[in-house]
Amino acid sequence: xxxAISAPRLMRARINDRLAQAxxxxxxxxxxPAGFGKSVALRDFIxxxxxxxxxxxxxxxxxxxxxxxxGLSEALKPVAPSAFAAFGTMQQRVLAADEPVRQLVEWFxxxxxRTVCTIVIDDxxxxxxxxxxxxxxxxxxxxxxxxxKWIIAARGTxxxxxxxxxxxxxWSAATNSSTLWSxxxxxRT
Length: 189
Hints:
This protein is of the alpha/beta class and about 190 residues long. The protein has a single domain, classed as P-loop containing nucleotide triphosphate hydrolases (Rossmann fold), CATH 3.40.50.300. Helix content is about 45%, strand content about 15%. The protein has nine helices and five strands, in the order αβαβααααβαβαβα. A five-stranded parallel β-sheet has the order 2-3-4-1-5, with helices on both faces. Helix 1 packs across helix 2, helix 3 packs parallel to helix 7 and helix 6 packs parallel to helix 7. The longest helix has 14 residues. The relative contact order is 0.22. The C terminus is likely disordered.
């Protein structure tokens, strides 16, 4: 067996500085086309800033609200272990609920009520096809603002949360590809 190969680290001081400024706000959006380096920039920022963050990389197959909730609750185990432990019971209640989004927001809010952290969600566009997922996440952000900071990365406008919708919800500012990268895809220097 050979030595383990580690993922390459790209030092992006200017991008890390901009992410550090944006991460002080309640919500940071990183929106750019595929291949612009969102995931690599997030990984580098989290490692170099020593940010204590919970990270959920949304897999391609998590296209439904319940799949997203399961993945997010699993990612939250370090800060809210009871959420993942209670997911099975909650799933049954949600399937029978008249207002599943509201019920899930209340459930997450209860499990996160004493939590102070940063939650990083990468590849949100995989789950954004289900509008209930975006409604759930938007309402959960509303309920946790002040204790939890959110960093969300997604491709283009398919993420369901846009800089203008973030401002309309009073989440403060958002960071998009034009802030971190030029429109040609080259890193700004």
